[in-house]
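Suppose a colleague, Dr. K., hands you the sequence of a protein chain of 100 amino acids and asks what its three-dimensional shape might be. Before reaching for any lab equipment, you can write down a predicted structure in token form. Begin with the sequence itself:
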Amino acid sequence: MNITDIRVRRFNKDGKMKAIVSVTFDDEIVIHDIKVIEGDKGLFIAMPSRKTSDGEFRDIVHPINSAMRSRLQDAVLEKFEAAGLQDEDEAFGEAAATLQ
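The predicted structure, expressed as tokens, is then:
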């Protein structure tokens, strides 16, 4: 499965959540609402989740193994950082790029 598109919607630079991302795989399926979060050890991604009846959050979709999680996180963070290099007006809009 190949990542064929990543779209980054940046948030205000204040706060821990830095962006919401949509990732397309093989030009056939897309995962929306992947979050880029700034943690104590740097940036990381959080997969889409929903709150359960007991108040816990559970991922709706997630990578099955650490190799895929790492590949996905590396690609998302690379596009996030590239979007940050654009001018201020574009950086807070939508930036899209295709991975080969």
